[in-house]
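Please go through this protein, sequence plus structure tokens, and consider how the sequence yields the tokens. Keep your notes short.
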Amino acid sequence: MLFVEPIRNFYGRFERPISSLSLITGFIFDALTLKRLDTLWENIWILGHLVIVAVFIALIHIQENEVGDEANPSKKHFWYVNILQFFFGGILSTYLVFYFRSADIFATWPFIALLALAFWANESLKRHYIRLSFQISLFFLSIYSFMIFLVPILLHQIGPWVFLLSGLLSLVLIVFFLKILFYFIRDRFTESRRMILLLVSSIFILVNLLYFTDLIPPIPLSLKDAGVYHRIEKTQEGNYLVAYENQGWSKYFEMYPDFHEVAGKPIYIFSAIFSPKNLNITILHEWQKYDVVNKKWLTERTISLPVVGGRDGGFRTYSLRSNLEAGKWRVNIKTEQGQNIGHVRFNIVPVIAEPELANMVK
């Protein structure tokens, strides 16, 4: 066709910047459009990507190709590899969006970093796509990340045994796929078998290690809002009217913004936790004071609060305490299993008169 050849040549020439731009725009698109983990559309979106990835992994290795085909726009292999890369990028960008939203980045950065590394590898190590072991390891990580939030949504439960079940199902699915692949590419698969086993086992062990050391976000929960306030009142409309110190943009650049406490008046910690429909849980507000002498955090009190699943903006609740000591404080918002959902940090400064307050409806 008249226009096919120029377009194909143009893409072959500018493949790297086009690929980078598509991944960046895809990530932004996902961040703006993917809202809830428990909706049918989001899960069909991810499942469709996984199916396409599986098909193109098979096509790349079932069909014979020559050295250099992955860089030649006139060959099918070139387009198979690029399509595979594109849909891997779509999956990983979706996971980055969902997992990044789900907890305090300071608490769960290792797992976020693992997904980001996979995202970078998908873009930068394209020629490794001709290596079966690299494709399978990235595919297994994609399946595992999907199962981690899909299984709790289906079972309406979270906890260690649900996470272990997610891992077991991931292994079953990757073994099923490998058996199908083995049927078509027996010789090539045999050559890569040891490396595939090593990589899949390493990913499985690493992800479990991150989970049981509280370094994986408590998917499918996510912290929609949290803060420290001087007053919280429930309105007739069912919303919450909060009173806070308006410190402007400066508060976003301080790890422990000042909270001016008047003796005898309570300090409120507000949190809005999103949980999928029918996944009702209990969260903890763990109030901790920093001991400057021993340089460690001391838990002063832990308060249990119910969360009912299904609300878009998260289920709103709060805890309160009075007459706290001056100094650095943090309230860890956690699951009953001890997984961190987020933190509220502040520095208590005693004052005689209440500071000027602003109001906001949540």
The radius of gyration is 25 Å. The mean pLDDT is 82. Helices lie at 4-13, 15-33, 40-62, 76-101, 105-124, 132-155, 160-184, 186-212.
